[in-house]
Amino acid sequence: MLRSGFCVAQITEKEQKTMGETNIMNVETVALDDQNSALVIIDQTQLPYKTELLHLKDQKSIWDAIYLLQVRGAPAIGVAAAIGIYLAAKEIQTDSFDDFYAQFKKAKEYLDSARPTAVNLSWALRRMEGVVLANKEKPVGEIKTLLLEEAEEIKREDIWVCKTIGEFGLSLLKPKMGLLTHCNAGQLATSKYGTATAPMYLGQEKGYDFKVFCDETRPLLQGARLTAYELMSSGLDTTVICDNMAPTVMKNGWVNAVFVGCDRVAANGDAANKVGTSYVALAAKYYNIPFYVCAPTSTIDMDCENGAKIHIEERPAEEVTEMWYEKRMAPEGVKVFNPAFDVTDAQNITAIITEYGIAYPPYEQSLQEIFKKKAQAKDNK
Ligand code: MRU
Q1: Ligand 1 neighbourhood includes 114 CB (under 6 angstroms)
Q2: DSSP state letters, 118-147
Q3: What is the reported pLDDT for 14?
Q4: CA-based max dimension of the chain
């Protein structure tokens, strides 16, 4: 599906199923094949028509897969990076800690450069680096084993985090409600459940019978291609709308709550998510509909003061002008502005749902409380 200007990640081994042959919810978004030293991902650029697993063995393939959105969504990028850096560490041939760490750091910086906005990428890599630094007295072989354990733990935690966010989110909802979501903050963006979709899946298990509107999400159509596919595969009542139709379905009274994910939340509650999210928040505010941001604490960056400090990724022009069309749709040479994310102002967010509870404004205080709860939970372990 990716066309001009993109190099496609090397496929060293291929498993392929066409739409309908497999339930996408039963396929792991991100996995480690340790025996073959490979990061295994679903190539999300091919969905929903083809479910193809990529087995990525070298750092360039992993970097490309993240950059090209073959693996995407903040938590899934974090898990992929953790597995990726473990695989890089495994390849390092030295008994000297200093040599090992120098090569580890180089690989870490390389992976970290793949996408700038989703803080989970640097969060997961920093966490893996923490394991290396905390164990510098140990033999290199042992450090590699500890890195494997940490990568597995990051993935396990992600599943717990998403499920818990889902439970908090569901506590805000009633059966038969209409919900709206933007982009894909679903299972395909995480290890399981998703964040914004987790209340939908947990509600579905309880027979809540939600009706979900998915914004198609220009320019890369994560809503139409991924969220709609996931939700339908799970039996949810799903309707795709163009991004500019959100105010219409809200005005019609079909939406009781909006749930979105995020790529980075600043300490004041400003939240970066897929471009178009802030426009949905404005419409929701106008129509008095609660707007919830689902945010694992790994996506909250307390070192980032506010949304203006969030680095917003800009992507190639052809994603807008030609990628989904048979023929280019905009004049050659036209200027294109293609930011991948926008920032929703904290004042337009009803609440931020984390795995340690629901934060309400003022977020400067409530997010600090969330991190206190997280620290307490760690101490009690
Ligand atoms: O560019 P993408 O597809 O990686 O953007 C993804 C999003 O904006 C998601 O909403 C966000 O990462 C949260 S995923 C739980």
Answers
A1: no
A2: -HHHHHHHHHHHHHHHHTTTS-HHHHHHHH
A3: 55
A4: 66
